[in-house]
Input
Amino acid sequence: MNGVARLPLVAVDAECEVRRRLIEPEFRVGATQLVEPETVVAVAATGTGQSVRIAVAVELGVSPQEATRCLVRALGDRVEAGEVVAARRRGLRTFQVTSPIAGRLERFDEETGSLVVVAEAPRQPVRALVAGEVRAVQDDTLAIRVVGDLVQGTVLLGPECAGPLVVLADRVDRELPVEEFDERCRGAVVLAGMTVSSAALRRLADVGAAGVLVGGLSLSALEPLIGGRSGERMRQLVLTGAAAWPLSLGVLLLEGFGRLPLAEPVFSFLQERSGRWVSLLRAESIGLERPVALVSSRSFQGRPLEPVPLEAGTPVHVGIPARPGVGRLRSAPFRSRTFDGFMFPAVLVERDGQVDQVPLDLVTPLGLNP
Output
């Protein structure tokens, strides 16, 4: 199994392309323009608008074909809530149908005599979140070339975000008390150590923190936020990210779910970058398999993010759920066999003076010398 290589957990001066895909954007920047994390690059919809079906034929007591002639507004028109959209005169009386919402008249179903009104989704400014050069603006997507220092995480809960890095933790295995999260956190991405409680997350949201970096997050911390330990709720939280997250800040879990300490080399790497702008981005935004913390650089001289060979002597991160950490390879990848004959790729990893066999899928090149 020689020749196995993977992208490193940590990379310095990596050249990346960040792609922001937006809904119905009005772009405010163009190709080759330089942007900062706080630069407004577009105004875009925050989601899809609510739609309402009005049974015009039923309400007016006419056939679907007759209902078409009763419309008093054209398709495509924008109407306000309570505005008349159809009317019919019968004798001395006029019967009217009004729209229950403000929106646009999208279509009329001639088979049922129903009119569909679609509300406009709220629109808001969209920030770049990274420092770099706009490479392309096309359709609904903005591409920005970025050079920065990168740390891969496991799960990003909540929205993508950016802010100056504030380091409050002094140890990789410490949980900070709620009182530690104060005005220093406003607008910042906070390196909080091993984990945070649900009360601490609410406190961070209250003081206006942009995001938080932790080793892990326990189920007991999540339950009060998502309404219980339902497997379906957890699945939706992981799959949909911001859509199922009740807080305004993003939370990047560097190790995974549970009370998991940060790897010491990764913690030191982030500590050294205190005060610099860091962005928490989803995997799809940066073209990787995992979400990242990206510390933007002002340099335009970067290196492509390239795989690192897995060979004896390579520093690695081991993602064993119950005991993550760092070590050093003592073998190249090989095929191992379970007691029942199942074959799987593995490596030998030395950690804390002990050599263990670890499934290859749980090993990532560290990218640093611990």
